[in-house]
Design a protein that fits this description.
The complex is a heterotetramer of chains A (475), B (176), C (717) and D (241). Chain A is mainly α. Chain A is built from 18 helices and 2 strands. Chain A has a single domain (22-471), classed as Formate dehydrogenase/DMSO reductase domain (Formate dehydrogenase/DMSO reductase fold), CATH 1.20.1630.10. Chain A has helices at 3-19, 28-40, 45-72, 87-111, 121-142, 168-188, 191-200, 204-214, 221-254, 266-292, 296-299, 302-333, 336-347, 351-369, 372-375, 378-402, 421-442, 448-457, and strands at 458-463, 466-471. Chain A has a two-stranded antiparallel ribbon. In chain A, helix 4 packs across helix 10 (266-292) and helix 10 runs antiparallel to helix 12 (302-333). Chain B folds into 2 domains: 4-52 and 134-174, Alpha-Beta Plaits; 56-122, no CATH class. By secondary structure, chain B is an alpha+beta fold. Chain C is of the alpha/beta class and 717 residues long. Chain C contains 26 helices and 25 strands. In chain C, a hairpin with a 4-residue loop joins strand 21 and strand 22 (628-635). In chain C, the strands form 7 sheets. A 6-stranded mixed barrel of chain C has the order 18-23-20-22-21-24. Chain C is globular, with a radius of gyration of 25 Å. By secondary structure, chain D is α+β, with helices and mostly antiparallel strands. Chain D has one domain: Alpha-Beta Plaits, CATH 3.30.70. Chain D has helices at 31-39, 47-51, 120-124, 166-178, 191-195, 212-219, and strands spanning 17-22, 60-62, 65-66, 73-74, 78-80, 99-101, 108-110, 131-132, 159-160, 201-205, 222-224, 235-238. The chains are: A mainly alpha (475), B alpha+beta (176), C alpha/beta (717), D alpha+beta (241). Chains in contact: A-B, A-C, A-D, B-D, C-D. The interface between A and D is large, with 42 and 41 residues.
Chain lengths: 475, 176, 717, 241
């Protein structure tokens, strides 16, 4: 063949290498170094500034205000008749939604062997755990007598009374507990080899820290086998758990006798909504990691934003489908209270939020994510992700405090005005980011061994004149 | 009665390691006198070794059954322990559909917890005793630990060197 | 249930007649006054015990309903209606229910202003001695009770002016006008009693008898009879008033008349009806032209004709009252409306008009003073003719329109207040000698109206006095004896209870009573046990209205003070009225028509509000010739567009934490014009309404969204 | 340990205790509301909170408007309190069994000290008649002397609602028991019915055909509010004359 052809051939491969992490292998040692470097990098003053601001917000907005709420009662919040449920439950649903993306990426994509997942499964799994922490906080903020929250755990009181298993809230408690535990374990298992890696190349307190966490992992055939099996079981089993969690959350509403809530589509509608906001949050997190941490542009590339962008587009369409499904049936039913409610959504004082929701959740993603170039632009996709989260928060706000304004007793209708919820909600957001900042300094955010495994499996293959990428099954 | 020695051979890559395993077998080192440690999950098949035995799936199954049992207790037995029959609305004393939720969640919880536990049991975690290990492993090196007769040490060392072993030396347990 | 309990207590009570003396001088035997023990545990842990029930009389308004108060460990726990009491037959209104929030009000006067009672009583005695009899005046509440009799005896013997009874309610009810009209029409004074219960149809001209008028509980019972009776068809209720009251809301027809034209309309309807019935038109109607009347009243002639149809085909009970009579032409209106009853010829007949029964120990009707008489009193105070004023059971500073200048006049008199609560008058008083709360006091009260029988309602302490207060009767008796001379002779009693017993002794011989007793002590015990004494027979007075239709009434146009474009209808808040504002739960009760809580509002027709460019909760400035107020708007769909209304009850400047500086005082807009009967023409004021631009959200029970469609999006509905 | 035969879920059409409310004669005078507050230690919440839908009324009187001036009419006043549903939406959703169905009295019980304040019951009540203690509302000295010792004083974070004056029901039953008889119809009544000057509220045994409530219910065309939801309410409303 001529040089020219050969050169073209060559540059094509080069091009593919730049694009795909999996085709651009580095020696394991190098990658380890890069990850360690990113983790051990000395925090800049900027980092400390952000850190301390967030810490202050958490201390004041979350904990101090929560103290006030507990001392003075729910009257500090905006709840009343008929809006007995307010922003705290909006946040609960929102954060549980966020947590779903982690599982989706690290479980569903794993099951379907979507290779692009490899570098950011961990970042996503962290989101699950941290998100659930916020969700848990929010649910307890909501309770009128939170100091008695333990009464809801399944154990008998002195009169041999157990919690009421008829109540969707009890199912919630079981489901969320299951989900929190299993997603945390699922975060830890694949972390073990990387902790071992960190153990091998760190000194001082970190050495002991990682030594303890790594549990003495060496990488024998046996250890790898047990780990692989366990991770497979998790990957498959945690998916139904994830679906059950948000479905049950949706039942808190769907099971109630209220116009606008009593809908059979709520289960899947909530699940897709969760993924919608979750993916948005995940991509934003990736963009931040890539932008702020050393060496991350090697691991997290345009291809990943492109891939997640596609998912976001599909999920957005799914959400639109379910939304319309719900709306259509509610509208067609013609129940006078539901009619009243739909009218209130669109034309009422919160109408602006209803339309903003549609713009953020449908218009924006569709307008931007169809374009491969834009999709591969980290900051752009991340922005879309954040906008989607705003939209999804609005959606939950409309479903809860706005919808309960309208009930079958017009004499009681009242519009909800948030009070202490505002600083406390900001507090949960701050805590979420804070946890990420801490995590980024303590655990390898990139599962190096998974990346290497992937790189081992990829290779170029010539079909006649065309060089293509092939992936071989390693398991 | 020949003395035995513990050796380790460091390989840069999978291919030579696999060959080495083959060679060692040929040289009369029995499979269960060998142990391959790697930084990535290299399957037994790749190394041409006998498939590993793991109980994790069984433990998981056991946990699932246990969890289901807890679910059954909560849903069907606990109500009968109440001080008096508690009625809510006109729903059955033991509600139908909700029990399914409880059974499901408890089963899953049991299964996943025990899977996690299974890994610990099977690989004797946590374990902080000194062990035969090389930090290079997590840099992608593949290390074959094996035990052979003192007399054969040099012969095997040469053979492995030929196969691309970066170094072959006695293995000692060291704190990780 | 309650009476069983009080019977069970009979023996205890019987022993009482003797014991009382001791009690009222302060140191009661434990057998009578159960000690207030601290709850051993928090009430949360629900300590169980035996309750005791005492019958007494409700002092929240002057109607005189019987109560049975449940007490527990010396605490009054719950006020319930006395089922034996003929006036209310076991029922109570909201104010009666909340009486306990008066008893346990955190802002009561806890002792005499002088610190100890001796010096306080001394000061009263000094006043008796130092001032000439003519220079001393007694101003008392509306209720014709034992204290009124006692003071009556005192003043009569000492040659002072007879005590004056007054209350804002009597002003808004226009009682003086009613009795005057009755006198003019029937030739005998008295408080008309309208037998709503047995009527076929009721035409009420401004009488808000379901909320506050005369005896709401009794009239509500009447309304039920009108609506639902086994013996007759469902009666029709027609309400003529510019602003829909709760009575108007229950009416089958609500006819919004321009204020001051009620009399005219009454005559017009009478004329149309008598024409419909055929025969000669009575002389009284000859003057009126229905078309013009409708024109003046601002309603369609058809509306009047429709009402006339109803009138012609039913025996109609026509009731004049409230706002209709609070006009310069109020007396003519009252007479015109009363005269209508002659068309149905139902004077002194079931379902007709009676004069209220006189109470057992009452010889002739004596109503509360008219506001004009109060003005006279104020004059005397100003001129210095009166130097010492004793006030009990009323707070003139609050209840009289500021325009009368009572407060200013106080500068010239030595004021003695017997207030239980630190009201506006007590604040001005030199001496405050707090009386017990009604539930801590003895007494009896004549039931002025509302019942066919002749009723004397009894009061007794249901709990021991909570503070260092003292019964005014005791104070006066003590003071009189201290003053000696004719004072001492006038009140030769050991104490209040002896006085009451003496008065009741007169009834001992009377037959036809609800009970009879061999001796005074037993009578007293029964009296306490049953909560009063009443005759079993119907004691209503059938008036002679024969001449009613032959008179001629010139229902002239009402005069209005001020240039404002709106008629002004002040109405009594049924839950607060003149003395309810300091009871937190009364404040938290929604107003029956607007559901507003804890504040004042001005009612404006939505159309008018639109013209003025004001929305709900917009604060407007309402000004009359006599004063101005600023308060938020309530767009009230059932008020004439040319009329605005404000409830009377808020706007206290004293009277405790729950009442103080809350809302506005409707009386501040009123002038000092009177109708011919001397009642205040409180409806005779025109006001101007201006937007201030400020907003003040009203607390409403109702949802402004759900009820008025405000803020739901789209057009309101 | 409960034996299966002890369990009898009641889903009868009629409960045990019930009310008939005659909107034709209710004048909206609020006497029932005041009586309820006095009997049941209901706290007052002040101007701001009561305006913001936080009033603790166990019974409220609803009214709407029809038509335009001058043909405007106020719809018949409608006292609204807990309907003591036979099939109550509030009960199953409470995670703590704080609101359960009394098999003995056929009432919706509210167990204050079991309530953790999720407010699901109130959210799920189609009649919106539940009141939540949003704060620890203060009753200055000496107002608490008026507390009814038979009724629990509720604290912050607890849900409450009309109980049909269950303390009176129990008292009457105890009296009857001690006299070895059944509770007689009309022997006692709830605070609201007792106060009502118009007798618009009547309380009694709906399961006894000869009782006054049953009579009224059937003689006059009574309707049940939101009956279409299948909540089996025990309060019957008589709308027209």
């Amino acid at each position: 063949m001529s040089d020219k052809q050969h050169h073209a051939e060559h540059s094509h491969e080069e091009h593919l290498r730049e694009k795909h992490l999996m085709l651009d292998p580095l020696p394991r040692g190098k990658m380890n170094e890069m990850v360690m470097e990113a983790m051990l990098a000395k925090p800049t003053w900027k980092w400390w500034l952000v850190f301390s601001i967030l810490a202050a917000i958490v201390a004041y907005g979350l904990f101090y205000k929560w103290g006030i709420l507990i001392m003075k009662g729910q009257g500090e919040a905006g709840v009343m008749r008929p809006d007995y449920w307010g922003i705290f439950l909006v946040n609960t649903v929102f954060w549980i939604g966020i947590s779903h993306a982690g599982t989706f990426i690290s479980a569903i994509l794993r099951v379907f062997k979507a290779e692009f997942r490899r570098p950011f499964t961990r970042a996503a799994e962290l989101m699950t755990t941290f998100g659930l922490v916020q969700a848990g906080f929010s649910v307890f903020m909501h309770m009128g007598r939170v100091w008695l929250a333990y009464w809801l755990f399944p154990y008998p009181n002195q009169r041999m009374m157990w919690p009421n298993l008829h109540s969707p809230l009890t199912w919630d408690l079981l489901a969320i507990t299951t989900y929190l535990l299993s997603s945390t374990m699922y975060l830890f298992l694949p972390l073990i080899p990387d902790l071992a890696m960190a153990r091998d190349r760190s000194t001082g307190w970190r050495k002991n820290f990682y030594k303890i966490l790594a549990l003495g992992f060496r990488g024998t055939e046996g250890e790898w086998t047990h780990l692989r099996h366990a991770m497979n079981i998790f990957a498959f089993a945690i998916i139904p758990v994830m679906f059950s969690v948000h479905t049950i959350v949706s039942w808190d509403f769907a099971a109630a006798t209220r116009p606008g809530w009593n809908s059979t589509i709520f289960g899947p509608y909530f699940v897709i909504g969760a993924l919608h906001s979750g993916m948005g949050a995940a991509i934003a997190v990736l963009a931040v990691i890539r932008g702020t941490m050393k060496n991350m542009s090697y691991f997290i590339r345009g291809e990943h934003f492109d891939a997640v962008g596609k998912l976001m587009l599909i999920i957005s369409m799914g959400w639109a489908y379910f939304f319309f499904n719900d709306y259509m049936v509610q509208w067609y039913g013609g129940d006078k209270w539901t009619q009243q409610l739909l009218h209130f959504h669109e034309a009422g004082p919160m109408g602006w939020m209803w339309f903003a929701m549609l713009v953020c959740n449908i218009v924006v993603p569709w307008a931007i994510l169809w374009n491969p170039k834009w999709r591969a632009t980290p900051w752009l996709v991340a922005t879309v992700g954040l906008i989607i989260n705003v939209g999804m928060w609005f959606e939950r706000y409309i479903i809860i405090p706005v919808s309960v304004t309208i009930n079958r007793m017009p004499f009681t209708w009242k519009l909800y005005k948030p009070g202490i919820e505002v600083p406390m909600s900001i507090g949960t957001v701050a805590l979420f980011i804070l946890l990420y900042m801490i995590a980024s300094k303590l655990i390898p955010l990139i599962p190096v061994w998974e990346v290497q495994e992937g790189q081992m499996a990829h290779e170029f293959k010539k079909f006649g004149r065309e060089t293509v990428v092939t992936v071989s099954e390693l398991e | 009665m020949a003395e035995k020695v513990d050796l380790l051979a460091v390989f840069p890559d999978l291919e030579p390691a696999a060959n080495a395993v083959e060679r060692l077998r040929a040289l009369g080192v029995h499979d269960d006198r060998m142990n391959v440690i790697s930084g990535v999950p290299v399957t037994e098949a790749m190394l041409g070794r006998a498939p590993q035995w793991t109980n994790v799936p069984r433990i998981a199954m056991g946990g699932a059954i246990l969890g289901f049992g807890v679910g059954v207790f909560l849903a069907y037995i606990a109500p009968f322990l109440y001080p008096y029959p508690i009625q809510v609305s006109t729903q059955g004393f033991v509600p139908g559909p909700p029990t399914a939720v409880v059974l499901f969640e408890m089963t899953m919880l049991g299964m996943l917890l025990s899977t996690f536990l299974g890994v610990f049991l099977e690989s004797f975690f946590p374990n902080y005793r000194p062990m035969k290990y090389l930090p290079e492993i997590s840099d992608g090196k593949i290390v074959v630990f094996f035990e052979c007769a003192y007399a054969e040490e040099n012969k095997i060392t040469d053979a492995l060197k030929k196969l691309g072993a970066e170094s072959v030396r006695p293995a000692e347990a060291q704190p990780l | 249930m309650s009476e069983q309990f009080s019977r069970r207590d009979f023996l205890k009570l019987a022993g009482l007649g003797a014991a009382t003396t001791a009690i009222l001088t302060g140191c009661g035997p434990a057998s009578r006054y159960v000690k207030r023990e601290p709850y051993q545990q928090m009430p949360e842990y629900n300590s169980v015990g035996q309750s005791t029930y005492y019958a007494t009389t409700c002092r929240e308004c002057a109607a005189g309903c019987g109560l049975v108060v449940r007490t527990y460990q010396g605490r009054a726990i719950k006020a319930e209606g006395n089922a034996n009491h003929p006036l209310n037959l076991g029922k109570t209104c909201a104010r009666g229910q909340a009486t306990l929030h008066g008893l346990y009000n955190p802002d009561r006067v806890q002792g005499p202003s002088t610190g100890d009672w001796d010096s306080a009583i001394q000061s009263v005695a000094d006043a008796f001695k130092n001032y000439k009899p003519g220079e001393i005046a007694f101003l008392m509440g509306m209720a014709p009770d034992h204290l009124f009799d006692l003071v009556g005896d005192l003043t009569a013997a000492a040659g002072m002016d007879a005590p004056i009874r007054y209350g804002a309610l009597s002003m808004f009810e226009s009682r003086a006008t009613l009795s005057k009209a009755a006198e003019n029409l029937f030739g005998q004074p008295g408080l008309p009693w309208f037998d709503v219960g047995n009527a076929q149809a009721v035409f009420s001209f401004g009488a808000n008898f379901l909320e506050t008028w005369l005896s709401p509980v009794a009239y509500t019972r009447g309304f039920v009879g009108l609506r639902q009776s086994e013996t007759k068809l469902r009666g029709v209720l027609v309400q003529f008033e510019a602003r829909m009251s709760a009575t108007g809301a229950k009416a089958d027809h609500w006819v919004p008349l321009r204020p001051g034209t009620e009399g005219l309309v009454a005559l017009a309807i009478g004329k149309l009806a008598s024409e419909l019935r055929g025969g000669a038109t009575p002389r009284i109607f000859s003057g009126v032209n229905p078309a013009e009347a409708a024109e003046q009243a601002g309603v369609e002639l058809e509306a009047l004709e429709a009402m006339a149809q109803i009138f012609a085909s039913n025996a109609v009970l026509a009731i004049p009252g409230g706002a209709a009579l609070g006009q310069s032409n109020g007396l003519e209106t009252a007479e015109a409306v009363l005269a209508l009853n002659a068309l149905s010829d139902n004077f002194g007949k079931p379902g007709g008009v009676y004069l209220s029964a006189l109470a057992p120990n009452q010889t002739e009707y004596s109503g509360p003073a008219s506001t004009e008489e109060m003005a006279g009193l104020v004059e005397k105070m100003k001129s210095g003719a009166i130097k010492a004023l004793f006030v009990h059971g009323v707070s003139p500073v609050f209840e009289l329109p500021a325009a009368l200048g009572f407060k200013e006049a106080l500068a010239n008199v030595e004021l003695f207040s017997f207030a239980t609560f630190p009201d506006e008058t007590a604040k001005e008083a030199k001496h405050v000698l707090p009386d017990h709360h009604g539930l801590e006091s003895w007494g009896y009260q004549r039931v002025a109206t509302g019942v066919s029988q002749s009723v004397l309602s009894g009061s007794q302490p249901v709990v021991s006095p909570y503070y260092n207060t003292r019964a005014t009767a005791d104070v006066l008796i003590a003071a009189a004896q201290l003053a000696g001379g004719k004072f001492a002779e006038a009140l030769p009693y050991k104490d209040e209870v002896e006085f009451i017993q003496t008065k009741l002794a007169a009834l001992l011989g009377e037959g036809d009573g609800s009970f009879s007793a061999p001796d005074a002590a037993t009578f007293m015990a029964y009296f306490q046990q049953y909560g009063g004494w009443f005759k079993n027979s119907n004691a209503l007075i059938a008036p002679d209205g024969s001449g009613a239709l032959n008179g001629s009434i010139e229902a002239g146009e009402a005069e209005f003070a001020g240039e404002g474009e709106f008629f002004f209808v002040p109405f009594v808040s049924p839950t607060l009225a003149e003395a309810g504002a300091n009871k937190p739960w009364l404040q938290e009760l929604p107003d029956p028509t607007t559901t507003v809580m804890w504040n004042s509002w001005i009612e404006i027709n939505p159309a008018t509000a639109h013209e003025l460019g004001v929305e709900d909760d917009d604060v407007v400035k309402v000004s009359s010739e006599f004063g101005a107020l600023e308060l938020p708007v309530y767009r009230y769909p059932a008020i004439r567009p040319d009329t605005v209304a404000i409830a009377f009850g808020q706007g206290h400047t004293a009277y405790g934490r729950y009442a103080e500086n809350r809302g506005v005082h409707a009386g501040d807009l009123l002038g000092a014009r009177f109708n011919e009967a001397g009642d205040l023409a409180f409806g005779g004021v025109k006001v101007r309404v201006e937007k201030t631009g400020r907003k003040q959200p009203l607390s409403r029970m109702e949802s402004i969204m759900g009820v008025y469609g405000v803020g739901l999006g789209g057009e309101e509905h | 340990m409960i034996r299966p035969e002890e369990i009898k879920m009641s889903a009868e059409e009629t409960g045990k205790w019930g009310m008939v409310i005659d909107q034709d004669i209710c004048t909206g005078c609020q006497a029932c509301v005041a009586a309820c507050a006095m009997e049941n230690n209901i706290t007052f919440v002040g101007e701001v909170d009561s305006g913001y839908g936080r009033s603790m009324h166990w019974i409220r009187i609803e009214r709407f408007w029809e038509g335009e001036y001058p043909e405007v009419k106020m719809t018949p006043q409608q006292p609204m309190m807990c309907q003591q549903c036979g099939h109550a939406n509030c009960e199953p959703v409470c995670p703590a069994f704080a609101t359960v169905h009394s098999q003995a009295e056929q009432l919706n019980l509210q167990v204050y000290n079991r309530c953790v304040g999720t407010r699901y019951c109130a959210n799920n009540c189609p009649y919106q008649v539940r009141a939540f203690n949003w704060r620890d509302y203060q009753r200055p000295e000496p107002l608490q002397n008026q507390f009814n010792p038979d009724v629990t004083v509720r604290r912050m974070g607890v849900m409450e609602k009309c109980t049909f004056c269950i303390q009176r029901i129990h008292k009457a039953q105890d009296t009857a028991k001690s006299e070895g008889r059944e509770v007689r119809d009309g022997e006692f009544t709830t605070a609201c019915a007792q106060a009502c000057p118009a007798n618009a509220i009547v309380f009694g045994r709906v399961d006894q055909p000869e009782s006054l409530v049953s009579q009224l219910k059937h003689r006059r065309h009574g309707v049940k509010h939101l009956e279409e939801l299948g909540t089996l309410p025990n309060v019957t409303y008589i709308k027209g004359g």
